[in-house]
Design brief:
By secondary structure, the chain is α+β, with helices and mostly antiparallel strands. The protein is built from 3 helices and 6 strands, in the order βαββαβαββ.
Length: 122
């Protein structure tokens, strides 16, 4: 089964040497994704849009996500994001982890990474 790489054109993809998502062996691995905006909720919404685009390009949707990791510099910023995260994953919530840590640039308030199982692969 060939490996497919999905690029979004984000500034860090070229600088760091990665792509937005990799499809391999029936799995879609979406790289840690930050969003643009002034606050954590705006950044979270933007990151989810970028992730959704990568999932769709791979042939998946949020309901196919089996694992999600949230990374935030301040864990207090996580709760304001819960309503949009719950809306994104709906009736198909993935296993999840939230980590408090530094991100690549202090302007970022949240980074989200997901793994999805391709429809029909399981």
């Amino acid at each position: 089964m060939p490996v497919e790489r999905i690029r979004s054109g984000g500034e860090f993809e070229t600088r760091v040497g990665y792509c937005r998502a990799v499809v391999a062996g029936g799995w879609v691995h979406v790289a840690g994704t930050v969003g643009q905006g002034d606050g954590v909720t705006e950044q979270c919404a933007d990151a989810l849009r970028t992730i959704e685009k990568a999932l769709n390009e791979a042939g998946c949707r949020f309901c196919d996500v089996v694992r999600v990791t949230y990374m935030l510099p301040d864990r207090a910023d996580f709760e304001p994001c819960w309503p949009m995260l719950s809306a994104a994953f709906g009736e198909n919530p993935p296993a999840a982890t939230m980590i408090e840590c530094g991100l690549i640039d202090p302007k970022y308030r949240i980074e989200i990474e997901v793994t999805a199982l391709m429809p029909g692969a399981g």
